From TrEMBL:
Protein name: O-antigen ligase
Keyword Transcription annotated: no
Cellular localisation: Membrane
Domain O-antigen ligase-related per the UniProt entry, residue ranges: 209-357
Keyword ATP-binding: no
Gene Ontology annotations for the cellular component aspect, listed alphabetically: membrane
InterPro entries from the UniProt entry: O-antigen_ligase-rel_domated, TPR_rpt, WaaL-like
Membrane topology: Multi-pass membrane protein
Main location: membrane
Length: 609
């Protein structure tokens, strides 16, 4: 078994790959298509490969037994792979499955380190790296706010090192309980170690930056709520608060809980009033998503299936005529439910979400607090266990209003916290001889599955670079040639197919554009409009009207689909044109533009005929 003494060769061999992986939230590439997404995805995968040799070696060298959380995680991974096999008639690892398995590998690696002699030396650097990522993201946010650098989203001026300010806020809010508890613990237990001294200052700076810079700039209600919940968990697990609460009798406890409930009611109303349209829009998404869950409640539609299946459910909902005028007005394109438990239920079914719930329950029940006092362990173990549990609670609360597992960086954060919160190797006995093969067998199979994706990921990396070149080219024909060259590699990538089809449509290769869009699993509003425009260009008005109607039912507040139907039928079917014109005339305007006003005026002119 390895012994990780500081400045030893093995110490750096174990440390460096893990530290590089922990930098995933701040990674970006300007040479890849969708660089803010794809760079994190590829970075996580290729660095996860570096963990495999040591992890396999240690899985055979160590004889520690698996605890309940470890077993549940193995069951979760097996369930995902079986579901993928059944739904796809063979093993098929899409992007989401890939970064989930990469993150599980990181979990196992951290658990391995916790069991090593001197493993706490690596944990110091792991925590320092996580806090450094928050500081880097905050610096990027400040520079974006000042206009010195651009954000990664055209609609938001500040996103930090992410594509959306909500992700920045969620990441910071999740880390805050960990940084807060690190600062609190190092102040309480002393800093007789240089690394502990550095941890004290960096955790304090990180906590201040989150409160004073990131959360005010990002302005995310979900992040404020998750930070409050995670911090409350930390405070409730301090000795002074526990002692204070122990003096409460039944009546005092009831009054205390009633006071909290009374405070929460106006706070909830205030949060709702900040952006009521946002809340009502999410309620609409949840309402439609429940229908999706109802169709496959036990096993779900498959991991990463939500963004492909949901548009069809939204179209069906608005076609049914059951939607209110407000719901039609609030309709939007979404790739997630803004509620991770609901999205996981849609993708993995009730079976999958129950496994995850049991996994989380096992974490908060593992290693009772008395063990912290009974075991003479370095302070970093106390910090990592309690702090990570508070951070996990913050992550869970944030996930109620977001979909963090749809992002590789937040998936990595979750499994890192899961490993840190899982007891730190404290009091883990040796496994019985007959069970010792289970852990190394799982590690080997998981590693083999990840390694098997290496050729695919390598070719994808090269293709993403070419895709970026095609998107940056001012020559449409050159772009088409590049898009065609990477088609065999990216033919399952929905964003690539949309870009390729749009380029073909611009070159008036309408049939080819229709073919490419036909390969997509789920179609966006722009896809449907592109299909309709293509059919209109080749004088297939029947198909054009069909796809314009689909686009309208996907987003029924949009004017262009109905406008094009009106212009197509104006002379061939005047009666239908008048019906559509009446519909346009009665529609509420969501965003008033000269184009929308012109469409309204043209509809009125047809009605006046």
């Amino acid at each position: 078994m390895l012994h990780l003494t500081r400045r030893s060769y093995t110490f750096y061999l174990v440390l460096i790959p893990l530290i590089l992986l922990m930098l995933t939230p701040v990674v970006y590439s300007s040479n890849l298509a969708l660089g803010i997404f794809s760079a994190k995805y590829f970075w996580l995968y290729f660095l996860a490969l570096l963990l495999i040799p040591l992890l396999i070696y240690q899985s055979f060298a160590q004889s520690n037994s698996l605890n309940r959380t470890d077993y549940l995680l193995i069951i979760f991974v097996v369930y995902i792979l079986i579901q993928s096999y059944v739904l796809n008639n063979g093993f098929s690892m899409n992007k989401k499955v890939t970064w989930l398995l990469d993150s599980v590998l990181v979990y196992l690696y951290i658990r391995c380190i916790q069991r090593l002699k001197g493993g706490y030396n690596v944990l110091y650097f792991l925590l320092l790296t996580v806090f450094t990522c928050v500081i880097i993201a905050a610096i990027a946010a400040v520079l974006q706010q000042a206009g010195i650098i651009s954000s990664f989203n055209a609609y938001y001026p500040v996103t930090g090192t992410f594509f959306h300010p909500a992700v920045l806020a969620g990441f910071a809010a999740t880390v805050f309980p960990l940084s807060f508890y690190c600062c609190f613990s190092t102040l309480k237990y002393g800093t007789d170690d240089n690394y502990l001294y550095l941890l004290k200052w960096l955790s304090g700076i990180t906590s201040g930056i989150i409160l004073l810079i990131i959360l005010p700039i990002a302005n995310s209600r979900a992040a404020f709520l998750s930070l409050a919940g995670g911090t409350a968990y930390i405070l409730l697990n301090t000795e002074k608060v526990k002692t204070w609460l122990s003096h409460f009798n039944g009546r005092k406890k009831s009054l205390f809980l009633a006071a909290i409930f009374i405070i929460l009611i106006p706070c909830s109303f205030f949060i709702y009033r900040l952006r009521p349209a946002s809340v009502e829009g999410r309620l609409l998404v949840w309402k439609i998503s429940l229908q999706m869950l109802k169709d496959k409640p036990l096993t779900g539609h498959g991991i990463e299936s939500f963004k492909y299946s949901y548009p069809n459910y939204q179209i069906a909902f608005f076609k049914s005529g059951k939607a209110t005028e407000t719901e039609r007005f609030l309709s939007d394109e979404v790739t997630g439910t803004f509620n991770e438990p609901l999205q996981l239920s849609c993708e993995l079914g009730i079976t999958g979400i129950l496994i995850i719930i049991l996994l989380l329950v096992s974490i908060f029940k593992a290693v009772p607090p008395r063990v912290f006092r009974e075991n003479a362990r370095p302070v970093v173990y106390r910090v990592s266990i309690t702090g990570a549990r508070g951070a996990l609670l913050a992550f869970i609360l944030f996930s109620l209003f977001s979909y963090p597992f749809s992002l590789p960086e937040l998936t990595l954060v979750f499994f890192t916290l899961l490993a840190l919160a899982n007891g730190g190797g404290i009091n883990e006995p040796s496994a019985p001889r007959r069970k010792r093969i289970l852990y190394p067998l799982f590690v080997c199979l998981l590693s083999a599955g990840i390694i098997s994706q290496l050729p695919r990921l390598y070719h994808q990396l090269l293709a993403y670079n070419k895709w970026f070149i095609a998107g940056s080219s001012h020559d449409p024909e050159e772009s088409r040639r590049i898009y065609a060259s990477v088609f065999p590699v990216l033919k399952d990538n929905d964003l690539y197919l949309s870009a390729y089809a749009g380029d073909l449509s611009g070159l008036k290769q309408y049939d080819s554009s229709i073919f490419i869009l036909g390969l997509k699993k789920g179609k966006t509003y722009n896809d449907l409009m592109c299909l309709a425009d293509n059919y209109k260009a080749i004088n297939n008005n029947e198909q054009a009207i069909k796809y314009y109607q689909e686009a309208y039912y996907l987003l029924p507040h949009k004017f262009y689909p109905l406008y094009f139907i009106m212009t197509i039928t104006r002379y061939s079917n005047p009666a239908k044109a008048k019906l559509v014109a009446r519909q346009i005339s009665d529609m509420k305007i969501k965003v008033q533009t000269p184009e929308v006003l012109a469409i309204k005026n043209e509809a009125r002119s047809i009605l006046d005929l």
